[in-house]
Amino acid sequence: MLTSIAITVAVISVLILVHELGHFLAAKRAGLWVEEFGIGIPPRLFGKKIGETIYSVNLFPFGGFVRLHGENAELDITKPKRAFLNQSKKTRVSIVVAGVFMNFLLAIVAFAVVYSFSGIPQETENVRVVEIAENSPAMSSGFLTGDIVRKVGDADATSNDEFIQALVEKENEEVTFFVQREGEEGLLEIKSTPRSDPPEGEGALGVVISTVETYYPPIWERLIKGVYYGFKEAIFWTTVVVTGFAQIIIGLFRGEVPQEVAGPVGIVALTAHAASFGILALINFVGILSVNLMILNILPFPALDGGRLVFIVIESFIGKKVLPKVENIVHAVGMAILLLILLAITYKDIKQLIEAGGISGFVDTVLKQ
Hints:
This protein is of the alpha+beta class. The protein has helices spanning 2-29, 89-118, 137-141, 160-169, 219-253, 264-275, 279-298, 305-318, 324-356, 359-368; strands at residues 34-50, 53-68, 120-132, 148-152, 155-156, 175-180, 188-192, 207-215.
């Protein structure tokens, strides 16, 4: 359990530090005074001033922070031209969204690393059986995982669509499948009868098929294609997470309590679960978490980056800045609400953990939600 917590703390710290690094680099580029870049949460253990910025290591090893001059209060501004509050709207927006951008970039890098080492997906004309359902026609007929279906009766099967369409036309009829099996010469003939009314989650034959195979090009090509597929994967997960958040928000307006949200306990369990499959699975999970953090931070809620963007938008409409004291109060209230939500989710996670009888059962419960 302690190892799982340590891995989770390391993962979350990387996500937050990368996010804060985005704010830091954007602020430096804009010429702002970055007073401190800290690793961990204060109180400070030690720090070193390089140039005008203090680089510190803090007591609680969880994430990090960037302290910009004039970020929250006008009273403490000693260098007005280099204070965050006095920058143009364009500059402030670029600094705020830089953290979100860095999380997206981290997700691309994480997914690219996974693809570079585990291989590049390639579309083929091989309709391969990758999974067989229990008590299905495929199982009783003698299909094996890894079989490549070349023909369904007289119909060629060179794509998933062709295979599925051929099954639809042969429902409740015995049909001969011509199958290529590793280690066997020629094509095997397997007779089976596709069902017209299969159980929920199963197809007519009871198989999961795929025409995508993994290949390993030269390392230089694999790195380039890894970045390409890493970008596509990041876009895919962004779509998934945005859809998920939208469903949660709609559910909240309907008075529904979200069940699929994991808190600290859930993240520890899921991180441990990912780590149990090896370093690549953990890196892939880091990419997914980074996308989640990106979307969460851009939500227009006080205390989040999206909440800060809302105040800049309000400023554009009213023609003047919202009083810093008012903005600080709103963000403080937003932070309090977020902490209460976090406590509620943690309570739910602990309850599920106890009911599931341990981490493995809890992970199964979370993954099914």
